[in-house]
Amino acid sequence: MIMETENTKTELVVIGGSAGSLQVILEMLKKLKDELSFPIVLILHRKAYSTNILQTLLQQFISIEVVEIDDKTEIQNNKVYVVPADYHLLFENKHMMSLDFSEKMNYSRPSIDVTFKSAAEVYGKNLVGVLLSGANADGVEGLGFIKKNKGKVWIQEPETAEVDYMPRHALQEVSCDLIIKPDTLADHINKQ
Amino acid sequence: MSTKKILIFDDDTTILEIITIIFEENGYQVEISETSHDILEKVSQFQPDVILMDNWIPKIGGVQATQLLKSHEEFRSIPVIYVTANNDIVRLAQEAQADDYVAKPFNLDDLEEKVAKYLQE
Predict the structure, then answer these.
(1) Which residues of B are less than 8 Å from A22 in CB distance?
(2) What are the tens digits of pLDDT across the range B30-89?
(3) Domains of chain A
(4) Out of A107, A132, B31, B105, which residue is the most buried by the measure of CB atoms under 10 Å away?
(5) Residues of A in contact with B109 (CB under 8 A)
């Protein structure tokens, strides 16, 4: 029994979002507990020339360190990572992330699909993938891949999303473990 | 007291989204714009109490847009806070005839404090 719990414990939470997702992210950050036993990675669609402004702004809502990922960034528990604009994020293994400048996927770089798939391969059942508000289908295929690799899939309740296309499409395509509302996302993460 | 109105010019949607959330949470009415060439129409329609103007904004840029606004008697008194990551921020704000400036990346509390200062005057 203990072995089973150990095997399925969450080792990474990856959250993907596009238009309308920042509101949910901010609400989550404010309510996260001070000590997480895993890292959180945020994949948000952003303009190509955005500077490190996202990291700076998000850090103002949370005591846990927010880090903008560089190429070959060592991944550590109890940190929130944001992907820099105009790069895809890949997981080399459970200790190292790398950035990739290959072509856009779903008109997006960073692409949520690319990172969800990479994380699913590395973390398998120890991964939680979360898809929030957004206007395109990026992330839906990746969620399916997470599910196939026995990870957990959480999707924002479309009725609570500012732009519901992304979560609505995901719910149609992927079997979901949890439908989340913006005010409960932090609670669910805190319980992992 | 009536709701205070802020008009924000910035082409970075991430910044626009976060600032909007913060100011709306604090009871402000927020209008955003990713372009500044239509500043006169935007200001005329929204009637803001204060404006945040980014330096790098498509079409005519922050300096020219602010100058355009300040050249019109009816809009001259609306405070413009210039926002940029450019090291030359003081000169750019002066050249634009902005009333104040905030360097990017900014602290949200500092930004709110600066906006509140102009709304009290």
Answers:
(1) 14, 17-18, 21
(2) 999 988 889 999 999 999 999 999 998 888 899 999 999 999 999 999 999 999 888 899
(3) 2-190 (3.40.50.180)
(4) A132
(5) 60
